[in-house]
Amino acid sequence: MIKIAVLGYGTVGSGVVKVLNTNANIIAKRAGQEVGVKYVLDLRDFPEDPVQSKIVHDFNVILDDPEISIVVETMGGTKPAYEFVKKALLSGKSVCTSNKELVAAYGAELVHIAKSKSVNFLFEASVGGGIPVIRPLNQSLTADRIEQINGILNGTTNYILTKMAQDGSDFDSVLREAQELGYAEKDPTADVEGYDACRKIAILTSLAYGQQVDYEDIYTEGITKITAEDIRYAKSIGAAIKIFGTSKKIGGKLYAMVAPQMIRSDNPLYAVNDVFNAICVTGNMLGDVMFYGKGAGKEATASAVVSDVVDAVKHMNINVMTIWEDEKMPVAPMDEMKNRFFVRISESERGKAETEFEEIEALDGVVDGEFGFITGIMTEREFNDTIAGFDSFVTRIRVGF
In the annotation, is 100 catalytic? Predict the structure, then answer.
């Protein structure tokens, strides 16, 4: 039997224990031997839970036990997760994690340590919850040059935008509803400001191109400024507003951003609603491949973690190669990125817009006294310089069609 330790008995950690217990027979067949939890590290005790007999409060108990071959990290954050994971790898134990913050910040380093020790650092659940996308990028799409990644990477924000579109509600009221239902945290900043999606697109982009992409370098814009009026404009042309993590290589330069975009119904991501996530990967030979499913949730995320555990068992003392070099890949300045833009201004400046922007698609009759329009393709700098000359500018949303 392979014995493992789970760090953290919160939502995902308890889910991992549940999956391992519930599907023990299936997992044993697929792993080639039984997998059992020997320790669960947590600051708390759980006297009413059978897991209490496995609870330890000192990480060194796990680190110093030669019977522990695999450590599952579900603590979240980077402190003390980074210290624990690094020590586990250096001691010759494989690590499976769902921690996107850890992977985005230290992924390249931890991958290299795992390789040097002939163990594995696996992190399928760090992006997309239960959606298998890391392994396909690392193993299945290796014959293609990745040209673009575009995805709905956060279930909370997708739920909020879906409800705003369905009910005509404003952002604040839908956010409160999402918090009541448990879809949004008490402090939703990481989700609604796009930081969560930013870390995820940084991880995917680093894997796609084999170099470190720092999430701090990626332009990030959340959904807090999206209004019911913006949704009405989108509906008037059969479009929807979603927040995407996007990265693409053009002319040898990497462009990346997290931001709301307006997309039409012919986009395969248009119909991805509620708490679901979807990631579209474009290869130069394969074309578009889409990965869709629950992007969060106890069982879904835990399932992805346990799939990594099975992979680690099948590759004991054999490193599964992951190309992720320490060398940093720069992200091109946002000012150079080209987009189309949906714009709202006063009706009084319509004539000026028709003159100043080379080509526009008018969205008439949506909000009284306003002129809504979509620009042609232009750089961010060109748009910002042009719109600065308008006194009645209300908002702009990038357009993904």
Answer: no
